[in-house]
């Protein structure tokens, strides 16, 4: 039987549900890996590295499902309105961004493994920053699951805070290296962890842009002047 718009929407909703579950896994990875950073828990970090395979497999399955759905809709001349087409584009992009957040969490875990038993404390600012990033990831997944434009805009507004935290951490590490409180190799890993936290937040803003696009048709992009809203498509 040829596919109709209602069938397309139903199957698209199944894909969205899979993406929301994927988002939950990615959020848990982000939370767990930063806890491993604070506790220097090498074994927990190794487990997180292994979990990346789970995310990769789900990423491939979701993309295959989405491609198959679009092929069948095209073949059957389904006659879709703009809204489900926007939702389809959003699903593809969100799938990719979630996988990249998981990749960043895996890279943080690998840094924990490299740090080994070094107990040099990291600045408290790092924990404040990473707690913020975990919250951003959680809010991003929630915004996508509920097509919540307002929450998505809140995610966009959080980017500047994360970048400010990163600047403070870099300056603090430089001071600690200069006065001998932190070894250069530890400062290097600290900088890498903070940078990866920024990367996670950046992928979240990409998802937030897509949530706004899906909900309103508005394209939002970042410029030197901040977030700007382009004409509807």
Describe the structure in your own words.
By secondary structure, the chain is mainly alpha-helical. The chain has a single domain, classed as Up-down Bundle (Methane Monooxygenase Hydroxylase, Chain G, domain 1). The chain is 80% helix and 4% strand. It has 7 helices and 2 strands. The protein has a two-stranded antiparallel ribbon. The longest helix is centred in the first third of the chain and has 35 residues. It is elongated, with a radius of gyration of 20 Å.
Helix and strand arrangement:
Elements: H1 5-39, H2 42-75, H3 82-115, H4 124-145, H5 149-157, H6 159-178, H7 184-216, E1 219-223, E2 226-230
Antiparallel strand pairs: 1-2
Helix pairs in contact: 1-2, 1-3, 1-4, 2-3, 3-7, 4-5, 4-6, 4-7, 5-7, 6-7
């Amino acid at each position: 039987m040829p596919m109709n718009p209602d069938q397309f929407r139903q199957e698209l909703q199944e894909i969205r549900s899979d993406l929301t579950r994927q988002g939950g896994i990615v959020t848990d990875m982000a939370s767990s890996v930063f806890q491993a950073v604070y506790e220097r828990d090498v074994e927990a970090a190794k487990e997180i590295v292994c979990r990346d395979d789970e995310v990769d497999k789900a990423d491939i399955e979701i993309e295959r499902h989405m491609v198959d759905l679009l092929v069948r809709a095209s073949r059957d001349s389904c006659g879709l309105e703009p809204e489900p087409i926007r939702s389809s584009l959003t699903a593809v992009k969100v799938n990719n961004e979630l996988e990249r957040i998981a990749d960043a969490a895996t890279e943080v875990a690998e840094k924990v493994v490299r740090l080994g038993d070094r107990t040099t404390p990291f600045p408290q600012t790092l924990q404040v920053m990473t707690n913020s990033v975990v919250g951003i990831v959680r809010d991003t997944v929630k915004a996508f699951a509920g097509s919540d434009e307002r929450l998505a805009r809140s995610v966009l507004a959080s980017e500047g805070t994360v970048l400010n935290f990163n600047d403070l951490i870099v300056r603090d590490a430089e001071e600690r290296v200069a006065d001998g409180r932190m070894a250069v190799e530890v400062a290097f890993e600290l900088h890498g962890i903070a940078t990866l936290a920024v990367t996670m937040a950046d992928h979240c803003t990409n998802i937030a842009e897509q949530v706004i696009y899906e909900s309103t048709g508005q394209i939002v992009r970042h410029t030197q002047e901040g977030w700007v809203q382009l004409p509807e498509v």
